[in-house]
Amino acid sequence: MTEAAGKSAKTANATDPAAGSATAPAHAAEQPPTYPAGGLVIERVYTSPGVHPYAEVTWERRDVVMTNWRDGSINFEQRGVEFPDFWSLNSANIVTTKYFRGAVGTDQREWSLRQLIDRVVLKYRAAGEQHGYFRSAADAEVFEHELTWMLLHQVFSFNSPVWFNVGTTSPQQVSACFILAVDDTMDSILNWYREEGLIFKGGSGAGLNLSRIRSSKELLSSGGTASGPVSFMRGADASAGTIKSGGATRRAAKMVVLDIDHPDIEEFVQTKAREEDKIRVLRDAGFDMDLGGADITSVQYQNANNSVRVTDEFMRAVEDGTEFGLRARSTHEVIETVDAKGLFRKVAQAAWECADPGIQYDDTINDWHTNPETGRITASNPCSEYMSLDNTSCNLASLNLLKFLGDDNSFDTTKFVKAVELIITAMDISICFADFPTESIGVNTRAYRQLGIGYANLGALLMASGHAYDSDGGRALAAAITSLMTGTSYRRSAELAGIVGPYEGFARNAAAHARVMRKHAAANDAARRMDDIDAAIFKVATDEWARGNKIGERNGWRNAQASVLAPTGTIGLMMDCDTTGIEPDLALVKFKKLVGGGSMQIVNQTVPRALRILGYQEEQVEAIVEYIAEHGHVIDAPGLRQEHYEVFDCAMGARAIKPMGHVRMMAAAQPFLSGAISKTVNLPESATVEDIEDVYFQGWKLGLKALAVYRDNCKVGQPLSVGKGGSTAATAEAEPAKVVEYRPTRKRLPKARPSLTTSFSVGGAEGYMTAGSYPDDGLGEVFLKLGKQGSTLAGVMDAFSIAISIALQHGVPLETYVQKFTNMRFEPAGLTDDPDIRMAQSILDYIFRRLALDYLPFETRSALGIHTADERTRQLETGSYMPVDEDSDEELDLESLAQSAPVEKVVTEEEPAVTEAPPRVHSSTELLESLTGSSADAPLCMNCGTKMRPAGSCFVCEGCGSTSGCS
């Protein structure tokens, strides 16, 4: 994908908060504001009285042009859009293309982030005033300003439907997650098709449980045999494949669940695995069965995620190796007995073959259910994080956790608590004005008011604070933050119940709701504390649970549910998050597009921060980051202690986190969530069926609510990808190209040439280097003197000098040698007497760093992370290594430089190691493939053609923000 941004037109420090907000809804509403004496008092946390948040930032104009790199077609173009200068190119492009409303090219089209935020926030404020949430107009204004500030500074984001719909003339749908219901009647089944279609048309997804439908082994009242739920799945699957989600090109998102005791469970388990066999046969026969291929549409059951709902009774039967009964739907009598372990094996076998079905743990889910008197939880949304009553919906919002990590490695619990309070208030207000796709969903959602606050950037937070993702410390920190988030949410919910009343269904479920609150609080008390950072968070969480439960005993609660962990695909990119949801980092290097076109690969900014927290000096940090930039991993990085390797483990790559590391992280967070967690546990291609059995079994033992797995390369219908040294069948069978051989010619140095002699000392070993250059500039020879004359070392260095000199004269770039020999480690190594290079890993490491400083242009060596002492000092003072023109009074504008100079050569503190990305790479997933030589099992984005990256149990395109899921 190519993205272009036009010449930056700064509109500095705009002071009019409503400027450019023509589409924002006015405060005037159908009913006048209501300010009860006991309404909420909103405190300022981020804002100052008399200063609008928009006035505190510098705004700039950009052009957004999105193209499909495969065919060069322009997918989108809007010029002159307005964003704060600290918003990345990618986040601004995604917001412009996904969330700005109005036809492009018309006056009705939104063109500023201010318009977008105003459209949403002013609607929330107006609804809060109408429904009596605030004590005064002043409190309503503080609410507006605080919410605006947090959205403007990417502290959190609402889910996508809020940005799509709120404040527009469209129905005010705010929910991304829906659960439907279907009964054992033809009217209900046909209504299921209709309701799913309406939800897909609106761009959302839905899930449901088919277990009420009679099996194919039961009789109809007419005397015939029932069709069974699997047969009806075909019709729903075809409908989902036909109705493009939200009018877009991606498929609809849906979840189908069947109980483990349903007589058709084996047929359900094997549906997608059998279709995978069909794909293989058709592919071998020459049909196009890749994703998006012309013939893939003939395959069934591909538009849904399938999950099996298992009970504790079944899992104990698996554990004990006993029989298990399958029950008739109408009478609940056992009509067939199966070997539990054998059935569990078939579930794991199918998941091994095609990644479906996932698994949901029914008794665990319903043990944490706040509304059992109303009904059981039988299903989930497509991504498995929202689990509640049938015919309900949930609106989501996610916090950017890295915004709360201080430079001293402390987590700002005070601001975090205040942010959660405000977000929960806003989310609850949205239910007051929200529209819903069906009447029953609207009635039930208003009656139970389920919310889904969550977070993103956990993986980045853990790495930045020096915690390994798969470690006791990492899990303790994740648990503490999750507990504090949910405890604060329910405390605010109890406070809201005292102002605007508890949810309608609370009275009949009061005892059950209070019991679940006590279970959360008990889990918080029992959680293991590992270090000062998580212990401090747990302490605040304990207070929040105690306060919330005390207030709830008096007021009840406003919301039946409060928290989930969603994929955060598009909104994670909107907030410039390095990681989504509960996921670890994808890899240590990422792909980044440039303002003026082109791209670069960059080491994640959390890496140098983590190294500093772990106690490494700046010279060591630079060397390690340079190594990661070249290799994509930390194995054998210069100076990095092996006990710290685990801190930099990622989802993919040379040190990929083990499957059970993902499961244990989910288990750490699960006791502190109202819902569940959207996450897929990835396993290597070499994983066995037994490995998947163990993951599913341990998920039950550890108290998870749901779990999905994916074994690499288990699906046939995957996009072709070529790693290092790889090739596709198409390229292998192509006509051999004519080979033209080029032979380098030697350009000898003149008799008299300028030279520079440098004395050096590395780790106590002293030597001399003489470098000769061409008169028109350019290094042409190097002579090294080290060791006594006649010694083996002196002879080897003479031979090495001749080899390097001849190669330079034949045109080998000095940059190539610098890339190859810097960070090479052997003795002698250590301190040097060179102020520009204080530490060296070896003699060769020093020599080629010195040559780079003396002979390479700034942009080239800066891209390699090699700087002088003065440049490093300048970077600490100004944030940039770039030399400043002393004759110019204007401040250096990095974005303006980006359009006239290769921005990928500019290195800042936030971008510690930058190199030009390979030309065939267009996303972080593709970059990782190029570094590792392996192929990632991820779909291609239907919009822009790049490989997507995992986001929970879904995928997200980091170029355009498209997702494969429902959020």
UniProtKB/TrEMBL annotation:
Organism domain of life: Bacteria
Pfam families assigned to the protein according to its UniProt record, in alphabetical order: Ribonuc_red_2_N (PF08471), Ribonuc_red_lgC (PF02867), TSCPD (PF12637)
Composition skew (Low complexity), residue ranges: 11-29
Molecular function (Gene Ontology), one example: ribonucleoside-diphosphate reductase activity, thioredoxin disulfide as acceptor
Coiled-coil ranges per UniProt: none
Domain TSCPD per the UniProt entry, residue ranges: 752-854
Cofactor: adenosylcob(III)alamin
Residues annotated as domain Ribonucleotide reductase class II vitamin B12-dependent N-terminal: 64-154
Keywords from the named record: Cobalamin, Cobalt, Disulfide bond, DNA synthesis, Nucleotide-binding, Oxidoreductase
EC number assigned by the record: 1.17.4.1
Catalytic activity from the UniProt record: a 2'-deoxyribonucleoside 5'-diphosphate + [thioredoxin]-disulfide + H2O = a ribonucleoside 5'-diphosphate + [thioredoxin]-dithiol
Record domain Ribonucleotide reductase large subunit C-terminal: where: 175-710
Region Disordered, residue ranges: 1-34
Function according to Swiss-Prot or TrEMBL: Catalyzes the reduction of ribonucleotides to deoxyribonucleotides. May function to provide a pool of deoxyribonucleotide precursors for DNA repair during oxygen limitation and/or for immediate growth after restoration of oxygen.
Membership in a protein family: Belongs to the ribonucleoside diphosphate reductase class-2 family.
Protein name as catalogued: Vitamin B12-dependent ribonucleotide reductase
